């Protein structure tokens, strides 16, 4: 349970792995805390997992603010990270500051934004003004319409060099953490070794300092929508459907209420 950024830095120095899971509501956040996880992420995957959208682009700052508030309220021992949603920060450092501070006021301790070196100026602006930032490189889902799908990144030597440069630029700009999504394991491990800030991986192999997964993927709630790199720890969809079917059947046959 690592509530503070300092605790994350210490874990990296000591080589202790940290666990993070997305949470979009009070109940999920309480489960994550009871399970002894290290962090919750109010991800903009909200739009897909809760909203049923095909990608994250429609998520609004109002939605992120509301979900950050209800998640933050539920936890006291773990780190709370929130995503800056699409089109809420890219225009200028000032726009990013206005957006990020709304999420900090809602209870986030750190905000995450997608983009590499192009975002360094914004990351510097925020980090000089009391806003801790986590970078997000590799597969950046807000760019999915430009990329043309949820595709693995960093596969060519040139792309790998670019990702290393992005990572270093974000760290130099003051980022406190870096998330890497869907990139080769050896590249993620190399970047992790090179950086002094903690790294978080998803679909990036075992070499990062922390791992993150989406709540619904871990619990098997939307098995048809989970990415190939997610690990399912529970067949949640079957178990929950079975319980609901039992309830419906007992109402129909009169055995509930007794
Ligand atoms: O929105 C999200 O859930 C994320 C993680 C998948 C890293 O950004
Ligand atoms: Na996200």
UniProtKB/TrEMBL annotation:
Reaction(s) this enzyme catalyzes, per UniProt: (6R)-5,10-methylene-5,6,7,8-tetrahydrofolate + 3-methyl-2-oxobutanoate + H2O = 2-dehydropantoate + (6S)-5,6,7,8-tetrahydrofolate
Binding site residues for 3-methyl-2-oxobutanoate: 44-45, 83, 112
Active site (record annotation): 181
GO term, biological process aspect, one: pantothenate biosynthetic process
Pathway annotation: Cofactor biosynthesis; (R)-pantothenate biosynthesis; (R)-pantoate from 3-methyl-2-oxobutanoate: step 1/2
Subcellular compartments: Cytoplasm
CDD domains: KPHMT-like (cd06557)
Cited function: Catalyzes the reversible reaction in which hydroxymethyl group from 5,10-methylenetetrahydrofolate is transferred onto alpha-ketoisovalerate to form ketopantoate.
PANTHER family according to UniProt: 3-METHYL-2-OXOBUTANOATE HYDROXYMETHYLTRANSFERASE
Annotated source species: Acidocella aminolytica 101 = DSM 11237
Keywords: Cytoplasm, Magnesium, Metal-binding, Methyltransferase, Pantothenate biosynthesis, Transferase
EC number: 2.1.2.11
GO molecular function, one term: magnesium ion binding
Stated family: Belongs to the PanB family.
Domain of life: Bacteria
Subunit structure: Homodecamer; pentamer of dimers.
One cellular-component annotation, GO: cytoplasm
Residues binding Mg(2+): 44, 83, 114
Name this polypeptide is given: 3-methyl-2-oxobutanoate hydroxymethyltransferase
HAMAP family given in the database record: PanB
Cofactor(s) this protein cannot do without: Mg(2+)
Xref: NCBIfam families: panB, PRK00311.1
Details of cofactor binding: Binds 1 Mg(2+) ion per subunit.
């Amino acid at each position: 349970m690592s509530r503070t950024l300092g605790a994350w830095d210490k874990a990296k120095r000591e080589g202790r792995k940290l666990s993070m899971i997305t949470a979009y509501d009070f109940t999920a956040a309480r489960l994550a805390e009871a399970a002894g996880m290290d962090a919750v992420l109010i991800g903009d995957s909200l739009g897909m997992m809760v909203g049923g959208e095909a990608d994250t682009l429609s998520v609004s700052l109002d939605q992120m603010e509301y979900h950050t508030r209800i998640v933050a309220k539920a936890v006291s021992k773990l780190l709370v990270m929130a995503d800056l949603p699409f089109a809420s920060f890219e225009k200028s450092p000032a726009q990013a500051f206005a957006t990020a501070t709304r999420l900090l006021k809602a209870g986030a301790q750190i905000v995450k934004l997608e983009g590499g070196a192009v975002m360094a100026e914004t990351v510097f602006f925020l980090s000089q003004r009391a806003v801790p930032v986590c970078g997000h490189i590799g597969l950046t889902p807000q760019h999915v319409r430009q990329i043309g799908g949820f595709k693995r990144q960093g596969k060519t030597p040139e792309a790998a060099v670019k990702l290393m440069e992005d990572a270093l630029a974000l760290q130099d700009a003051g980022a406190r953490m870096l998330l890497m999504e869907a990139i080769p394991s050896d590249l993620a491990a190399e970047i992790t070794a090179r950086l002094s800030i903690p790294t978080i991986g998803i679909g990036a192999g075992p070499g990062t300092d922390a791992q993150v997964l989406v709540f619904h993927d871990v619990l098997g709630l939307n098995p048809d929508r989970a990415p190939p790199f997610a690990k399912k720890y529970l067949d949640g969809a079957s178990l929950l459907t079975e319980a609901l079917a039992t309830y419906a059947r007992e109402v129909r046959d009169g055995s509930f209420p007794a």
